[in-house]
Structures are given as C-alpha cells and as structure tokens.
Amino acid sequence: MTTANQNLKPVTTKINAKGNLEIGGCDLIDLAEQYGTPLYVFDEQTIRTIAREYKQAFKAYPKVSMLYASKAFMTKAVVRILDEEGFGFDMVSGGEIYTAAAAGANMKKCLFNGNNKSYDELQMAVELGVGLISVDNFLELALLNEVAKSNNKTVDILLRVTPGIECHTHEYIQTGHLDSKFGFDLTQVDEAVELILEEYQNLNPVGLHAHIGSQIFETNIYYDEVEVLLKEAGRLKEKYSLNLTHINLGGGLGIKYTENDCPPSINEIAEKIISSIKDNAVKYNVEEPEIHIEPGRSIIGTSGVTLYTVGSSKQVPKGRKYVAVDGGMADNPRPSLYQAVYTADVVDKPVAEPVETVTIAGRFCESGDILIKDIKLPVLKEGDILCFYDTGAYGYSMASNYNRVLKPAAVLVNNSQSDIIINRESYEHLTACDVIPDRLKNKA
Ligand code: LLP
Fold it and tell me: How far apart are CA 289 and CA 89, in angstroms?
C-alpha cells in the first residue's frame, strides 16, 4: 500500500473543467489572482491524510507517540491541525515553543530538542510544561538542572546520542554519523548518566533520542537505529539499573520531489521499526519501549506547493533559456543550498506538450538563484503561473528577506475554501525592527 509521501502532488490535485490545476477544490489561477504570487498553498487534506497514515502504520505497536518536527514548517494553523490529529511537537527554539503554546498545543506531548539551547529557552520550556527535554551535551545537563531546581521541578529528559549510522542523503542533512555536532557520542553516555545519578537531582532520565538524517530512502537503517538505542538502553540497565522506557527515533522519511524519487512508504518504515523492537528488546533484555517518531518533511512536504508568476526571460545565444519568476532562493533556499531538484507545471496548461527546455531562475541578485535547472515545459510566456510541487517542508521555514524582498503569504485550502494562514509581509513589517540612532536622524 502506498502512502501520500510517495505522491508527487497533494492528494486533492485535479485538473478542473477549465483545464486548470486545482488543489483542495481551489483553482490555482484564482488563488494567484486573489492572493498574489509568490504564494505557498497548503492542502489540509494531504496533511491530515499523512498524519493518519502514520498513526495507522504504527497501529500494531500501541506504545507510540507522534511528534511533528516543527522546523519543517510551523505556523499556528498547522499546530491546530496536527494537535487535532493527536500529534505533539518536536521544537528546537523559543520561537517554536512560543508558537506551539500560542496555538494551544498540548505542551505535555511536546519535546524540546537542539544542540545549544539557551538558559532562557530552557526556562521557557520548563515554565510552559514541555513534556520532555532532549539533552544534547554536558553544558545543557548543568543548565537544565539549575533551571529545573529554581522552578522546584523534576524534568523528564532524553539523552540525545549519535548512533553512528550513516544515511545516504545530502551531507548537510546527515545527522546520525559519528562526526556530528548533535548529541553525546556513545562513549560519553556513561559520564552523562553518572552526573545525572550523582549530581543532577532535578533531572529524570527516561530515554534516549537519535535522529539519523533527513530525506532518507533506506529502510534498514531504522532497524539499525532501534537496535543501537535498545542495545545502549540494555547496557545502561545492566550497569546502572537505569530503566529507560522511551526511545525517540527522530524523523527523516523522504518524500518524492521528482518522478525519479522512490521514497519508501510509511508502512515500510513502521514495519522495520516494530520488527527491530520485537527482536532487540528480547536480545538486549529491555522492556519494549515507548517510542517517539518525529517526522517533519514527510508530514508537510507533499501538502505544499508554491505558485510563481513568470516574468522576464533570456535566451543565451547558443546556450540556455532562462525564465525568471517572482520568487526564488529567499522563499525556497533548497535548490541553492542542497542542489535540491523540484518539479513544476504550468497552472493553466498542466497537460500541454512539454516542448521547450528552460531553466527557471529566481529574482534574487545572485547567479546561484536557480530554482530548476533544465526542465521541459510548454512554451512559457510572461504572466503564466507556475506551480512548484513539494515545497511544503523547509521552504517558508527557511525563508529570508534577502534583497529586502517580502516573504510570501501562505493559504490553506480544503473543500473548495481557501484561508490565509500567513499574511504576506508588508514594507512596514520589513522595517519594523529597524532603528535609526538619533545622531543619524536628519534634523533639517
Ligand atoms: N528530529 C530531529 C532531531 C531533527 O533534527 C529533524 C530534522 C527531524 C526530526 C525531522 O526530520 P524530517 O522528518 O523533516 O526529515 N533543511 C533541510 C532538512 C534539515 C533537517 C534537520 N533535522 C532540508 O531542507 O532538506
């Protein structure tokens, strides 16, 4: 059975009677007219479908909690949807904690994670009752114990470890290999545990946390990851009589960005994880743990598309044809940062013969601002609307105001209705934090 992370397009994508692409029952030409471009469009049904597919896939193992990795794309509306679907949130900053709390997430189901959390952020997490904190390093053990003590609380923690598993993805988004900035090396875990047991009375270690990387297409590495963590839990049980009941496996499941991508289904990953728990809990003499799964991209990536308007074009004599759109590396830095490849359609000609190979360039003042290199499309003209698929994850969340360009709006579509979930920035927003010192003010 396939799951929606294996689709290139949101589950509601159709060609309507006018011959235009529609998502969530909304004609994308109408959305571009109503809200302007660039525009992020998120399909609520795709988000909910995938969230439910995750829950369904793990039905055979009831001791599972789902945490959405907020870093992929977080806004208050997305928190509402995933909170309704029973998800908690994996958060990595005060901003993500604030957003989750402001949107009414169940903070007990949430986890705070990150390799350099500040004292203030830890304080905020403890005050707001974040259920679990994944402690990444020795400094943080000390800081968090201090925070917990000053709040008269004992805080449940996971120890983030580097499991020494390499996945085949872009180097920048690998995390589980040994030479990584995240977490305790397995050789440092004993020292951390001894500090907790002997000195840090306000920390309650309940489990281990790892994340092996992102945009992963392999399935066996999840089996291996579970084994590494259960083996470590078994070792700590034996050596310190420490009963670690939770294993957080991070996220990482890949999605389909182009026809060439074949990510595994959510079910395949779930089967590997569950079978590894069954095998290795026995092998390492630990109880079957409570597991946490932290998907980001595979929950939100496929649900999102970006609409751009075609502007200028340039035919390099005997070379490429560049077609520029009104967005680019500031609303989607992934092509320039990771050489990520995307697919696009022309919104009012989704089935027209692709006859011309063009390179879609962004509008930012940088040669590297290329969104798609060499894509075959119908002939494009100024004013055409392009729909880029699979921009839901790590697009808006990594967007910037490079060139002082305003960040686009985002709308949520469902049942032929569209609602703004992020307002388009204005020049007032853009300059709201700017300050001119008095001595530079024009006194004339
Ligand atoms: N849990 C932890 C501890 C993580 O570090 C991450 C992602 C996730 C979960 C979610 O991973 P996902 O399911 O989304 O693969 N900006 C990069 C991706 C960086 C991922 C960082 N950590 C990109 O655009 O490809």
Answer: 20
**Contact of 165 with 228, CB cutoff 8 Å:** yes
Query: Using CA atoms, how far apart are residues 203 and 156, in angstroms rounded to an integer?
Result: 6
The one catalytic residue among 167, 365, 387, 433: 365
pLDDT digits (tens, 9 = 90+) for 283-319: 999 999 999 999 999 999 999 999 999 999 999 999 9
Distance between Cα 28 and ligand 1 center (Å): 29
Hey, what's the torsion of the CAs at 152, 156, 162, 164, to 10 degrees?
160
Name the average pLDDT for the chain.
96
**pLDDT tens, position by position, 242-279:** 999 999 999 999 999 999 999 999 999 999 999 999 99
How far apart are the C-alpha atoms of 30 and 55, rounded to whole Å?
A: 34
Q: Ligand 1, closest atom to CA 250?
A: 1
pLDDT, one tens digit per residue, over 44-83 is 999 999 999 999 999 999 999 999 999 999 999 999 999 9
What are the pocket residues of ligand 1 if the criterion is a CB atom closer than 6 Å to any ligand atom?
A: 69, 71-72, 90, 113, 173, 175, 211, 214-215, 250-253, 294-298, 334, 338, 393-394
Q: Does residue 26 carry a catalytic annotation? A: no
- Considering only CA atoms, which residue is closest to atom 8 of ligand 1? 251
Annotation: CATH topology of 44-300: TIM Barrel (3.20.20)
- Cα–ligand 1 centroid distance for 296 (angstroms): 6
Label each residue of 48-93 as H, E or C. Answer: HHHHHHHHHHCCCCCCEEEEEEHHHCCCHHHHHHHHHCCCEEEECC
